[in-house]
Amino acid sequence: MNRIAIISDIHGNVPALQAVLKDIGRRGVSSIYCLGDLIGKGPSGDVAVDLVKANCERVVRGNWDDFIGKETTNGALKWHQERLGPEGLEYLGALPFSIEFLMSGRYVRLFHASPRSLYERIQPWDSHESRLSLCEGSELCRDPRPADVIGYGDIHNAYLQHLDGKTLFNTGSVGNPLDLTSASYVILEGEYGSRETADMNIQFVRVTYDIEAAIQEAVDAEMPMLNEYIQELRTAKYRGITT
């Protein structure tokens, strides 16, 4: 069987990414796919881009990867743009929208947020119809057909659900998890490229990493919106919100 590690939402947190890459290597998984948001929030987007380029076989574009290349007057975004430089911005802007393939007789589609947009946010507690819509295709996808297995990132909240015969999962976040403080990723196991129905497994992995080292990197870099970032890493709550 083939095994693919699926990571997402690194957000410039290099200690978390390094811990996840080490764990993937320890498990003997050689193929890694990334579902976007390599940069933003954390201080080391440039290093995260280099690590993803060196280690990931396929990468799609996230919402941060998309809007970071646009002109802005926002001081925090300008700070991240300067850290990335022209080469990093060009790489992010050229990333594709989705990854699609057959595995164990099922059509698998992976994207950042939804099959329709990089900016449409759907949570595991949203309506049945909203979640089921993630199984649909669109003109942005390589193939518009509905998918059997759907994986995405964006919401930083790992989960697995079965909906009307479809399998839906979210990888959670490597660098900015908002469910638990440990980094999250998924291992997808099956017969890659096969049209024949066969076993297929989805495994969620949580990896402990040095949160304080990640915070110190941000402090040393004099990163904007530092307090908000620290709260999210230490509490796994969006901007420190507890309700």
UniProtKB/TrEMBL annotation:
Limits of the Calcineurin-like phosphoesterase domain: 3-189
Any GO CC annotation of this UniProt entry: cytoplasm
Pfam families to which the protein is assigned, alphabetical: Metallophos_2
Membrane-spanning segments: none
InterPro entries from the UniProt entry: Ap4A_hydrolase, Calcineurin-like_PHP_lpxH, Metallo-depent_PP-like, Pesterase_MJ0912
Single GO MF descriptor: phosphatase activity
Domain of life according to the entry: Bacteria
Family: Belongs to the metallophosphoesterase superfamily. YfcE family.
Protein name (record): Metallophosphoesterase
